[in-house]
Amino acid sequence: MTAFVVVDHVDQAFRLPNGQSYVALKNINLEIQKGEFVSLLGHSGCGKSTLLNIIAGLAKPVAGGVLLEGRQVTQPGPDRMVVFQNYSLLPWLTVRQNIALAVNKVMRHLPAAERHDIVEQHIDMVKLRHAADKRPGQLSGGMKQRVSIARALSIRPKLLLLDEPFGALDALTRSGLQDQLMQIAQTHELTCVMVTHDVDEALLLSDRIVMLTNGPESYVGQIIDVPFARPRERLNVVNHPNYYALRSEIVYFLNQQKQAKQRKVKQTVAIARNGLEKINLEIGFVPLTDCAPLAVAQEKGLFQKHGLEQVTLSREPSWKAIVEGITSKRLDAAQMVAGMPLALTLGLEGNAPTPIVTGMVLSRNGNAITLSRSLYEAGVRSLADLKGALVNHPHQTHTLGVVHPASMQNLMLRYWLAAADLDPDRDLNLAIIPPPQMVATLKSGNIDGFCAGEPWNSYAVNEKAGYVIATDLDLWMGHPEKMLGIREEWANQYPETHLALVKALLEACEYCDDRRNREEIAELLAKPDYVGAQLDYIRAGFLDPYDRGDGNPPELLLRFNQFHVDMANCPSRVEGLWILTQLARWGITAFPRNWVDVIDRVNRMEVYRAAAQALDLPDTEPNRSSFALFDGTVFNPDDPIAYLNGLPIKREIRVEEVNIDQPAVVVAA
Amino acid sequence: MQTLSNADLRVDPSTGQPPFLVIDNVSKVYPTPTGSYVVLEGISLTVREGEFVCVIGHSGCGKSTLLDMVSGFRQPTEGQVWLESQPITQPGPDRMVVFQNYSLLPWKTAFENIYLGVHSVFPDKSKAEKEAITREHLEMVGLLESAHKKPGQLSGGMKQRVCIARALALRPKVLILDEPFGALDPITREELQEELLKIWAEHQVTVLMITHDIDEALLLSDRLVMMTNGPAATIGEILDIPFPRPRNRSRVMESPLYYELRNHALDFLYRRFAHDDVE
Questions:
Q1: pTM of the prediction?
Q2: In B, which residues are within 8 Å of A317 by CB distance?
Q3: In chain A, whose CA is at the least distance from the CA of B191?
Q4: Residues in chain A closer than 8 A to B259 (CB atoms)
Q5: CA torsion through residues A21, A22, A28, A33, sign
Q6: B257 domain-assigned
Q7: CA A553 to chain centre
Q8: Nearest-CA distance from A403 to chain B in Å?
Q9: B199 located within any domain
Q10: Residue of A112, A199, A121, A127 lying closest to A156 (CA atoms)
Q11: CA–CA separation, A486 vs A495, rounded Å?
Q12: Cβ of A197 and B269 within 8 Å?
């Protein structure tokens, strides 16, 4: 079945006075289901109103077209009503007359009494009975907009199109109208498309938010599914564990678009010097204690030492932002969570594969699982206790936050839960929340715990919002945590630069593991350019004994942040394979039948070795042997599929031959 | 000279100075044919010198009326507003107001609009001095190149910059902003917020600003005054916004406290003092 509304390969262009043409929209594809509420979001001039006008039939696209219930839209019609920001009511008619005008025109085949009833019913619908005989000049902005909504709906359109309907109202007056619109849309099962600037409005009202890039040639940059259950209530929506994560994702998209506008002016070109293909690099990191190697390489002049004269460290708000930065080529390289290079290479969550390589591990360990105070008060001290608490409250949904699907935090938290026979998707709910939002979300009671890096666990402990039930040392001592990630294409284009970068960071990692330097590094990390958190929270585990906030005395964990010792920097292939099994176990990616190829391509041992040899550091890879996490289940790298099959809790596992070079071509057999 | 009677006006022991701006138990009542209508009732607020205070509340809560009594456009029915121990009885150049609708003279250039204000407040300064002040403030808002343009040739954001420049050129002690960015698109609004933060830090002026935008208030202010709904509106709660300065939008937004404060304000405005737009 085709969708209710189909926007099919729409281009729109306008002729400019100088004879050239301005392409506003390029190749817009969008399907809208019946009863769906879709918002179009983007900056001024991104063409969102243009798109709405095309759906309304008020403008014709230069290419492509729009179908409504399978029929092409060629002109405006009463089945698609538009509500504009400026109300467009007739000023000499009363509220009742304005609505009646539309009803009498479109429904002239109905008897007068019936038309009268429809008008009255719609006056009530927007609660304007007391003002039915007033003219627009006597109404507030909010009331005027209610009249135009009533008028639009009175003729029973199939599709309600709203062009920034509340843009002229102040943010607080807007809220009442949003609530009313939401109610009406729900009761009447309306299909709505709304253009808006307002992120909170879009999140409250929509099932999907379609974000357009900046013009010219705007296209659909990203679509966000809004998962809040209906009927919705403003404050409940705001308290959904994902609310601020989604909100920051949208704000981030809009900011990227804003910056892209400015960036277009100063396109960066590769500067070759010092025998390197490119010495000007933009490297992304997320403000966490284990960004230390990047901070040290920058502040101690190690990039410089290896010829990378112009390195800018770009502080990113989330791991999603890192993915965006790398795939959009805004970033040359980035700190990545350990599952990210493989997951992006395979195609994360249905996205097109982006081949990524990693020449080194930047850090190991450094995470913890924090639970809320209320679970502490309920006596939860161990994984078994947690299971008991969940079993005792089967009707209560417990939500835990993780930072990214491909993060070790997600993979290890899931492993930990499953080891106690808890299904992380069925017995609980896991939400993706950027690290900086974890503590606030925990404090507000919207999640019951999280698995994240520092300083966020220590922050929660110090704020008395939670306690650490386990560190990752309890789960898998020495697991890879952060990797250096680079697009494969980039690594092939700039091989000497890649090597220089790995050398600089290897030296930085060595520096970080010399405990005499930790004091200095902790102070460096506390600066706003890096983590920007209270020094105490950074010191915990990194330098000082680690306080779990569970009443036990703080404990010195020498390996909590491991940057170099014990072959820490080697991008071991066996560990990569374990990550592949877990990504497949939870349905995050398929399991590649050609896993040997895939791992060889991602984990660039030759780069690591060359860099280590040049620095006179050991370059061996750990033995290719079986190992086990805390629960004792043996992982045998020679038979990952048997291992996967033997895991009792898992999603449906897809085992596929993955051809990284031809991702788009899938030929049906 | 009136005597200071209220306890609020006593010397602040921490500074050794009397408080800077005191709104002392102020009420505003309008007579109507059907009896008196109380807009504001018993508002008390003390503002430190150099503080940035935002006022938020639903429409009709009397925020503008309150600020009008600071600017001197209106007088309280009861109570009194004091600036540096002087009662406020009329408008004056020590308290400049910027409105949402710009209020520039359309036939004068940006330069002339500012110059006019400078001239009327500093009539004894030389022409060269007055021109220098005008230019300095146009430069402060990045509009030196548009000095010769008339309001009709300026975008909304640029017009509002001229208004801020005009207000600050008179070296006011208090800058009063009545929803200054409400009519601007989100990007321009964000740019102006950031510019305002910079200007505020450089000029060390005391700011009272009305807004409907919680995020704007959290970014800019030291304290957020949340008003209850009218009639007889009063201060429902004052939120301290302790983010370190200088502030940067993304830094502020990554603080866990940001979400706590935002949710608290949302709860105040949409649950505890929800407002129906049914006039």
A1: 0.77
A2: 250, 253-254
A3: A258
A4: 244, 437, 440-441, 444
A5: negative
A6: no
A7: 37
A8: 14
A9: no
A10: A121
A11: 11
A12: no
Which range marks the domain in which residue B162 is found? 105-170
Check: CB of residue A288 under 8 Å from CB of residue A455. yes
Task: State how many domains chain B has.
Answer: 1
End-to-end CA distance of chain B: 43
pLDDT per residue of chain B (279 residues) written in tens, 0 to 9: 444 445 455 676 677 777 899 999 999 999 989 889 999 999 999 999 999 999 999 888 889 999 999 999 999 999 999 999 999 999 999 999 998 887 899 999 999 999 999 999 999 999 999 999 999 999 988 899 999 999 988 888 899 999 999 999 999 999 999 999 887 877 788 888 998 999 999 888 999 999 999 999 999 999 999 999 988 999 999 999 999 999 988 889 888 889 889 989 999 998 888 876 544
Residue of B nearest to A440 (CA): B256
Residues facing B206 on adjacent strands: B174
Top residue of A85, A123, A172 to mutate, by most chain B CBs within 10 Å, is A172
Q: Pick the residue from chain B with its C-alpha nearest to A439.
A: B256
| B202 class by beta-carbon count within 10 Å (0-12 exposed, 13-18 middle, 19+ buried) | exposed
Q: Does A317 touch chain B (CB under 8 A)?
A: yes
Which residue range(s) make up the domain with A340?
267-669
- Domain membership of residue B142 (yes or no) is yes
- At A314, which CATH number? 3.40.190.10
| Close Cβ partners of A435 (under 8 Å, ≥ 6 residues apart) | A286, A287, A288, A318, A403, A452, A453, A456
Is residue A26 assigned to a domain?
Answer: no
Residue with tokens 């031809």: A662
Q: What phi and psi, each to the nearest 5 degrees, are found at residue A465?
A: -95, -20
Write phi, then psi, for A578 (nearest 5 degrees): -60, -45
* Closest residue of chain A to B246, computed from CA coordinates: A528
Amino acid at A598: V
CA angle A150, A156, A162 (to 5 degrees): 55
